TrEMBL record:
Pfam families per the UniProt record, alphabetical: AraC_binding_2 (PF14525), HTH_18 (PF12833)
Residue intervals of the HTH araC/xylS-type domain: 212-312
Keywords from the UniProt entry: DNA-binding, Transcription, Transcription regulation
InterPro entries: AraC-bd_2, AraC_XylS_family_regulators, Homeodomain-like_sf, HTH_AraC, HTH_AraC-typ_CS, Tscrpt_reg_AraC-type_HTH
Single Gene Ontology MF annotation: sequence-specific DNA binding
Protein name as annotated: Transcriptional regulator, AraC family
Amino acid sequence: MYSRYSTRGIADQDKSRYWEAAVNDAYFDLKLTFQETRTFDATLDFWEIGRLSLSRLYSQALQYQRLGQHCTNESDSFLVNVPELSEIHFEQMGRSTWCAPGGFILEDSREPFLFQHPKANAMWVLKIPGDLLRSRLRNPRAYCATLFDARDGAGSLFVNYLKLLIEHRQDLPETTQALMGMHTVDLLAATLERNPKVLHSEDSAVRNAHLKRVETYIRTHLDNPNLKPDLIAQACHLSTRYLHMLCRETGCSVSDWVRELRLQEAHAQLRYRPASTQIGTIAYQLGFTDQSKFCNQFKARFGMTPGEARNPAR
């Protein structure tokens, strides 16, 4: 789905109210402070890509605030902001950073923040459901309000992939777009994990290496219905007790982590695999031995049945 918002043609006295409603509709509730409302000019192009959304935003100088009253469990998402014309300033969780063109930052909707650009700016903004990013990355909050390089390496590949996705989306079926969206999240996770400053400031390199090895093993063995803590620990050369401790530090049990990764993969496959592929086949190939139980867990997790998740119109 594509939407476009623009202040052009809006009466001067209505521009600030119109733009605040547009931004809140595209992202989540924010308080906006304008330098000049009468001559304010802004446009926002918005695309939905599977469970993600990507937007291209242009506006004159502006300040956005995410207040405590805005932060609810229902608005669990992360924004990746990529400025192109001028610097942006961002503050969240006691951290503060300036991000110029050539970089990007991560924002958490569940925490208050301040975001501003003193000059006119154009930006790419990627919105990711919180559960989806957490299924790819341990503790994404650790990466918020930190400057990441978009000029070379994985960061450059991530940002260019965003632009290519929009450039070619009209030529791609929705299932392929959804799959590319999942690849975008994987690229982002790979980019964030390569930042040594974040890794060493929040967790030890050893602990993160263990978690990454465990996650890789789980992802490559989702088809095994006997994917239990003892098996995972043995395969990753850890004690079962230490594995449980690692998972507790991330806020979930080993079994919860396995189930979450299976459900996320099932959701992705329902979007991009042919409609002729039976739901039971997907469930079985991801280690679910009881289709009824799988359907119940899927609906509890995503608020829809597997069949509804397969319907692009939803």
